[in-house]
Amino acid sequence: MISRLENLLKGETIKIKELVRDKWEINKSYNNNESKTLSEIKFRVADRVEKVIIEFVFFPVEEGWRKSKDIISDELRDNEQLSDFLSGLENEEDFVDKVLPFRNHINFIIYDSRGNFRGRWDHPSHFGQEIIISRDSGETSNGFISGPLPRGEWKLIIEKHSIITDKIDINLKIKTLGEFSLHQSYSGELHAHSIHSDGNSSLEELQRFAAEKSLDYIAITDHNNISGWHEKNLHHPVTIIPGLEFSTFDGHALSLNIDSFINWHDLYTNKKSLNEIIDMVHYQGGIFGISHPLEFGDPLCVGCRWNFTEFSWENVDFLEVWVRNWSKNEFKNDGSYNLWKEKLSEGYQITAIASNDLHDKNEFNTKRRPLTFIQARCNCKEELINSIWEGRVYLSSGPIIDLFLSPKESRDKKYYIGDLVSCSGNNWIISVNIEEIFQAGILKVIGDKGELKRVHFDHSEEISIPLLTDKEKYIYIEITSEEGEILLISNPIYFTNK
Ligand SMILES: [Zn+2]
Ligand SMILES: [Zn+2]
Predict the structure, then answer these.
(1) What digits encode the pLDDT tens for the residues 359-385?
(2) Paired residues of 205 in beta bridges
(3) Within-domain flag for 272
(4) Are 50 and 74 part of one and the same domain?
(5) Ligand 1 center to residue 357 CA distance, Å?
(6) Which end of the chain is more exposed for a tag (fewer CB within 10 A), N or C?
(7) Spacing, Cα 251 to ligand 2 middle (Å)
(8) 223 C-alpha to center of ligand 1: Å?
(9) What is the DSSP secondary-structure string of 278-339?
(10) Domain carrying residue 85
(11) How large is the average pLDDT for residues 276-298?
């Protein structure tokens, strides 16, 4: 009780599970000539929501008894199969009573903003009940799928199988609840090769090594292969993210959190476009990102440089901006960083990640290795992946940060890396608590129009920076040594009109 009170006094956000974030009530009517059609209803889930609650009813539920009898009499006259079936029964009336009265038959299915199926409402079992889709499996309703609730536009598709009455009126209530904070980050490696491609460690060795290095997660991304996933499940306390690295003739790309093999050969037989290959990743609940876009290409490393032009950047979830040592020229990290900034300024919300493109675990002992820090609700695969998709990530070769943005007049409201903030042009306080840094450095706040603020610091400390934004599209931070070496890059907090 005391610590909760202390937290309140310190202005910490206390999780209030039942806080209503948004609610909608939708009333629509459909005529009986709309049987066998689909209707789509969209709604927008805000950042860091805990639950989506849906209630759905329609009226009338069934056709009147008399009209139902008329319908079945007509059917008996015209439908030989039905009359044969009924005449073979001992008690014909019982059967007729059982099928009457005819009901309107309406259901819906729901997709989240990442295009993943989240469940189906089934009449009559869900009629008039509150349906819960939660991040936690324990409270999610039967017929629906728990897990991360990605922000953005969700779709509910109404299936009108049969409208037997003249018309029906539907009443749909949707609300979103809860808002969790994001002070916890998990660090790890998103790009690792094992002996199942050209790495030198087995999966067990990679996991043990990740545990020794206190990594929270490791992604297994062998070249065009998933055979490593079949090594028996190991029990190190490290979250494993199954993936693969598409190693094509014209570029490499990571696909993370897929559940089966995906082949890129169709790109070269003209059967599929790159966008269609990326769709296959997304259909499996995975995310897609370009690896080392500016690595040496042919003939030094055939296919290693990104040369594809026929694809939509909208489909790219992340970009490997920092590979191994920042200044390693093989990867031209500064060029990848510029490419990322160029895409941000064009309006794409692509998450920057770091990696070591790990082939030999000893490489990891070299200085200035970057890690990807993912701010997530738990160290669990689905939430980590969703946080990468939402951009809740910073890249660091050492410092650890806790960063949030608050309106100057409302300091208890906190926006985190990756959040979409629905206004710009305001007075803000950006708070950055820097730890694990043992040298003086420079913290820069950068917007889409360039550097906004610069603060020199001596060591780990908590820095509050007043900030006046003027129609910025986003802000992010960069931390360098006094000599200008990059030590940390955050992903943006985005300003949006949505
Ligand atoms: Zn590669
Ligand atoms: Zn690789």
Answers:
(1) 988 877 767 789 999 999 999 999 999
(2) none
(3) yes
(4) no
(5) 7
(6) N
(7) 11
(8) 8
(9) HHHHHHTT-EEEE-STTS--TTTSTT-S----SS-GGG--EEEEEESSTT-TTTTHHHHHHH
(10) 65-99
(11) 96
Residue type, 184: Q
Question: Is beta strand 239-247 parallel, antiparallel or unpaired with respect to 252-256?
Answer: antiparallel
Among residues 240, 181, 184, 187, the alpha carbon closest in space to that of 488 is found at 187
The size of the chain, in residues, is 498
Q: Pick the closest to residue 448 from 486, 492, 396 (CA basis).
A: 492
Q: What does the alpha-carbon distance between residue 356 and residue 333 come to, in Å, rounded to a whole number?
A: 12
Structural domain ending residue among the three candidates 128, 150, 177: 177
CATH number of the domain that 168 lies in?
2.60.120.380
**Which residue shows structure tokens 């009109």?**
497
Instruction: Give the ligand with the smallest distance to the CA of 330.
Output: 1
Q: Which ligand is nearest to the CA of 220?
A: 2
One domain for residues 252 and 147: no
- Separation of CA 193 and ligand 2 centre (Å): 6
Distance CA 70, CA 145 (A): 41
- Burial level of 74, CB count in 10 A (0-12/13-18/19+)? exposed
Residue 269 CA to ligand 2 center (angstroms) comes to 24
* Whole-number pLDDT of residue 241: 95
The Å distance, Cα 454 to ligand 2 centre, comes to 35
Based on the fold, state whether residues 53 and 72 are members of the same structural domain.
no
Q: How far is the CA of 356 from the centre of ligand 2 (A)?
A: 8
Domain boundary among 99, 124, 148: 99
**What pLDDT band is residue 498 in, cutting at 50, 70 and 90?**
low
Around Cβ 275, how many Cβ atoms within 10 Å? 12
Question: In CATH, what number is assigned to the domain containing residue 271?
Answer: 3.20.20.140
Same domain membership, residue 311 and residue 201: yes
Ligand 2 centroid distance, CA of 295 (Å)? 11
Asked if 326 and 408 sit in the same domain, the reply is yes
pLDDT band at 92 (very low <50, low <70, confident <90, very high): low
Find where tokens 């003086």 sit: 440
* 110 and 89 assigned to the same domain: no
Query: In terms of domains, do 268 and 351 share one?
Result: yes
- The pLDDT tens digits for 458-495 are 887 899 999 998 889 999 999 999 999 999 999 999 99
Ligand minimally distant from the alpha carbon of residue 246: 1
Kindly give, in sequence order, each residue whose CB lies less than 8 Å from that of residue 41, ignoring residues fewer than 6 positions away.
26, 155, 156, 157, 158, 172
Amino acid identity of 452? L
If you average pLDDT over residues 305-327, what whole number do you get? 96
> How many angstroms separate the alpha carbon of residue 191 from the centre of ligand 2?
6
Distance 139 CA to ligand 1 centre (A): 41
